[in-house]
Design brief:
7-stranded antiparallel beta sheet, alpha+beta, Alpha-D-Glucose-1,6-Bisphosphate, Chain A, domain 4
């Protein structure tokens, strides 16, 4: 009788954990007004060779932004840990949106967007990310939004320093 119960319980628990992992999500959202056109901001975002000079978090990005392209993002955590994340460019709408996804489904995935919205006097730059997966139950992600805000502020400085 013990085997019969175990053969039933293990798949049920496994299915429940997979479902819970897929439903678990965290959303990160930061915005920055920059007195520049979307074109000026886009030019800086697309020039990944200069990221080490101004970007405090994404210190290196390998690859060329194009829909379907595979990228390697090297990220610096506040503790100084260096993390490497492979990403696929899902959406590239020039001067409007850059969307990348990656991760291990069920464990941890990310869907990160840069959005540029022209407004009077400049552009609102948004970084929006949704992470999903089981790892979120254990990961302290409290540093993500402040890190993205630092990136937005550094982007503002980089774009407006030549104006």
């Amino acid at each position: 009788m013990g085997w019969a119960i175990l053969k039933f319980v293990v798949p049920v628990i496994t299915t429940a954990l997979i479902a819970a992992a897929l439903m678990t999500k965290k959303t990160f959202h930061v915005e920055q007004f920059i007195e520049a056109t979307p074109e000026e901001i886009w030019e800086v975002l697309m020039d990944t060779s200069t990221y080490p000079e101004w970007n405090p978090v994404f210190f290196q990005v390998e690859g060329i932004y194009a829909e379907g392209a595979k990228m390697l993002n090297k990220v610096k955590s506040p503790k100084g840990d260096l993390l490497e994340m492979s990403a696929t460019v899902k959406t590239l709408r020039t001067t409007r949106e850059l969307r990348q996804t990656g991760g291990l489904p069920g464990i941890i995935t990310f869907d990160h967007q840069w959005l540029l919205e022209p407004v009077e006097g400049g552009t609102i730059v948004t970084q929006h990310e949704v992470d999903r997966g089981l790892y979120l139950w254990f990961w302290d992600s409290s540093w993500i939004e402040p890190a993205y805000q630092r990136v937005n502020e550094a982007l503002k400085h980089e774009v407006t320093k030549t104006k």
